[in-house]
Amino acid sequence: MEGDVLIRARARVLLSTVSSDAHMWNLVFLQSLIEETGHEVRNLGVCVPDEVILRECRTWRPDLLVISTVNGHGHLDGRRLIGKLRSDPELAGLRVVIGGKLGVLGAGNIAHVESLVRAGFDAVLEADAGVEQFLQMLSDLPRRPSLTGPAQVHELPEPVTAAPAGPALPPGAPRGRMASFVARAAAEGRLVVQPRMGFGTVAQMRAGLEAVRGCRARAVGTVTLDSYTRVGDHESARRSLARGADLNGFPIVAHGAAVTRAMLDGIQDDDFPVQVRHGSALPYDIFRSVLDAGADATEGGPVSYCLPYSRVPLREAVSDWSRSAELLAAAAADGHVVHLETFGGCMLGQLCPPGLLVALSVLEGLFFRQRGVPSVSLSYAQQTSLEQDVLAVTALRRLGDELLSDIDRHTVVYTYMGVFPRTPVGAYRTLEESVRLARLGGAERLIVKTPAEAHRIPTITENVEALEFADAVAALEGPRFPADPGGSDNEVYAEARRLVDATLALSDDVGTALLRAFRAGLLDVPYCLHADNANAARATIDHRGFLQWAEAGRMPVVAVGRGHGSGNAQHLLEMLSYNERRFDRELLPAMRTEVTA
Ligand code: B12
C-alpha cells in the first residue's frame, strides 16, 4: 500500500479519557508505557465525547480500549460510556479496561470497582496499584501484523480576523472589590490567601465559604466549578445533582444565577470578595452566570483554558474568550468590575519551564487589556526550584510594569500544581516554600493546596487549616517585597521577553498573534496533546532543580539537551515526582527500597 513503511506483529490499543476529564499527564504517561511494550497506540487526548470513542472503535478496530480518568467523575462517565459500547453489537465484545482515580472518595473509590465491572468493563484498575496488573494485561494481548502509515498531518486553523482594539481606559480605572481588598492587604504588608475550594451542593458550598470567611487569615473566597460545567455539559451536572451524586465542584450554570446569588448573599462583601474558578475553553455562559450572580472575580485565559484543558480548536477558544472578556469590560463600564486573573502561569500544572509560563501569563493579560478589562492579575505556579521561581515572579512583575502599566493589576502565586507530596509534612513543606516564593517575589495573593491534594478533594477543615498555616508563615516571613522589580534583568525575564516580543510581532491583535505563534511553533507547550500545539518541545530538570528546555522545538529559547534515559515512561514519572521526592523526604528510604527490590 502506498505510504506504508513497516509491518510488525503488535496489538492496537486505543487510549482515551472520559468526556468531562481534562487531565493529560496520565495519558502522556500511559502512551509511553504502552509503546514501550511494543504495541501501537492511538491517544485521543482529553475530554473525549462518547461518540468520538465509539467512532474510533468502529473505524480503527483496536484490540484493547483503555480508559484513564482521574478527575473523580470516572465512575459516572465510565458507566455511561460502557453502556453505549456494550449495547452496540459491533463493539459488545471489545476488551475495555478503565483505571485511575475513579471517584472523589480517595481510598473509598474501591467501592466503585464492582459496579463498573458489572456495568461491563473487563477490568477496573484503581490508582497507581493498577499499573502492574495492566502491564501483565498488555503482555498477554494477542499480537497481529499491522501496517504503519506515514504520520498524519494536522490541519492548523486559519487565524481569526483582527478584533477591534479595546477602548482607552481612564487613568485610575475602577478596581472592584477583589482588587481593592488585595491592595488594602498589600498596603498593610499582608499576603492574601485563597483556597481552590468547590463543592456540588449549595449547602456544602455555602458552609465552605462561611468557614473561609471566618478563618484566621487574610482570605478571599473561591467557588471552583465542576468538570461537567467546564465542558458545557450542564445536563449531566443537573442529572448528577438530582441523583445526589458527588460532583468535583459547584455547577454554577445548572444551579442558576438566582440560587448562586442567594448562596453568596450575606457572605460576599468588601471584606470577603469571591472568585469563581472554572477551566473552560468556552466560558461565555459561565461569565454570564458570574455577572448575574454578582461575583467579584473569575480567571482563566484563551490559551491556558484551551490547550491543557480541552479539545476545542484554539481559534474557537480565542473567539469565545474575546466576547467573554468584552462582556466583563461592558459590565465594568456600568460599574460592576469583575477582576480577571490569567491562568497562563500554570500550564499543565508542571514541567513547563518558567520563561514560557511568564510569557503566557503576560500575553493573556495583554489579551484581556486589549478587550477593555480594567483589572487583572498575572499568575505564576511554583515549580521545582525556589531560586528559579523567584526569578520568574520578579520577571512577571517587571513585564507587567512594562506592558500593562495603564491597568490595575497584581501578582498571584499558586502553590505547586503538579504531582503533590503524599505526606502531610511534605505537603506543608511545599506550601511553606510557596509562601516564601510569594514574599520574595513580591506577589500579593497566594492560592494554596492542602495535604489531601495527592489523594482526594480536600474537606472544608483541610482548606481552612492550609489557609491559616499559609497566613502564619507569611506573617513570620514578613513583607519582603523586592525594592526594585525593574532590577530583575534575569534569564527568565530575557526568555519570557523574547517569547512575548516574537508573538506580538505577528499581529497588532493579541488573539491573532497567539494563534499565529502556536501555528508557527513559536509558542509550544511541552507534552501538551492538543491538536493546535506543536508538541515538539520537552522539559528537563537540571542538577540545581531548575526547569530547563530539553528540546526547544521552534521556540526562540535555548535548550540544554536531553539527559540520559530521557523520553521513556519511567523518566517522565521521575520528573513528575521530583517535588514529591524533594518534599516527602521521610519516604525516600522506602522509595529507594521499592526501586531496588
Ligand atoms: C496536574 C493536576 C491537574 C492539572 C492538569 C493539567 C492537565 N491537563 O493534565 C490542572 C491543574 C489543570 C488540574 C485541574 C483539575 N484537577 Co487536577 N490534579 C493534578 C494533580 C496535581 C497531578 C496529576 C498528575 O499529573 N499525575 C501524574 C500522572 C502520571 O499520574 P496520575 O494521573 O495520578 O495517574 C497515575 C495512576 O492514577 C495510574 N492511572 C491513571 N489512569 C490509569 C488507567 C489505567 C488503565 C491504569 C492501569 C492506571 C492508571 O497511572 C498513573 C501513574 O501511576 C492531581 C493530584 C496529585 N496526584 O498530586 C490533581 C487531581 C487529579 N485533580 C483533581 C481535580 C478535581 C481537578 C479539577 C476537576 C478541579 C480542581 N481541583 O481544579 C480540575 C479540572 C480538570 C477537569 N476538567 O477534569 C483531583 C481529583 C479528585 C479525585 N479524583 O478525587 C486531584 C486528585 C486533586 C485533588 N486532590 O483535588 N489538575
What distinguishing features does this structure have?
597 residues; alpha/beta; Rossmann fold; 2 domains; 8-stranded parallel sheet; 22 helices; binds cobalamin
Query: How large a portion of the residues is in β-strands, by DSSP E?
Result: 5-15%
CATH topology of the largest domain: TIM Barrel
**Main CATH class of the largest domain:** Alpha Beta
Return the CATH architecture of the largest domain: Alpha-Beta Barrel
Average of pLDDT: 90
CATH H-level homologous superfamily name of the largest domain: Methylmalonyl-CoA mutase
* Overall morphology: globular
**Small ligands present:** cobalamin
| Class based on secondary structure composition and strand pairing | alpha/beta
Computed over alpha carbons, the radius of gyration is: 23 Å
Helix run count: 22
Query: Residue ranges: pLDDT <50 for 5 or more in a row?
Result: 146-164
Strand order of the largest sheet: 8-15-14-13-12-11-10-9
Most strands sheet: 8 strands, parallel
Number of strands: 17
Give the domain tally: 2
Distance between the termini: 47 Å
